[in-house]
Amino acid sequence: MRQLRAIVSIALGALALSGCSLVSTTSSPSLIPRDQIPFSLLGRTIPGTNNGRVRFITQPVYIVDASGHLAPSSRIVPSPPVLATVLRQLFVGPTQIETFAGYTSALPSNLVLLSASIKNGVGFVDLATKLSRLHRSKEILAVGQLVLTARDAGATNGLEITVDGRVQRSLLPNGTRTETITANDYQSLLNN
Predict the structure, then answer these.
(1) pLDDT tens sequence across 47-91
(2) Distance in angstroms (rounded) separating the CA atoms of residues 111 and 93
(3) pLDDT in tens, 11-39
């Protein structure tokens, strides 16, 4: 009985204190004077660096539109764009607004990018799982999403996909497989 009283009194005390707040609320936003914002957060450079700056640009990533074709969609990435950063934006998938408009992604939601780089215009993408586990039509769209997005990020001479360092033969729209794919192979998937 003594434990029950203790638990009940603690619960009542917690309930009474939960109604308290240290920050008063207002019905409208309040303006904070510039001189009261700490840590140089309004400065032109990154606080704590020697004049460090980050500039952002919009970069296209390719997602599947409502008609089942690939369509570019803009994402904001640091400038200059790095293949790994752009592909991570692709892996996030369509935005909520794009989803409401019928856009999807053929890439698996649990796909993990291990590394991505560009050498001599060829993109090298290392994934944790094989795309060949997907249905053939989804695999073609997924590979198309990767190669078209990589092309716009600087991999103009093609893309090589590996899984744990082993080169994968990617499925082309014509049904054949090849190790190095190019954006031209997937032009038929674009919504023109």
Answers:
(1) 777 877 778 999 999 999 999 999 999 999 998 899 999 999 999
(2) 11
(3) 888 877 776 666 667 778 888 888 888 87
Distances (CA, A) of 54 to 44, 59, 76, 77, 93: 10, 15, 12, 10, 24
H helices, E strands: number in the chain: 4, 9
Helices (H), 70-129: 83-92, 96-100
Q: What is the 3-state secondary structure (H, E, C) of 150-185?
A: HHHCCCCCCEEEEECCEECCEECCCCCEECEECHHH
* Structure token pair of residue 191: 């919504």
Joined together, the tokens standing for residue 73 give 């969609």
Q: Tokens at residue 9, please? A: 């009194």
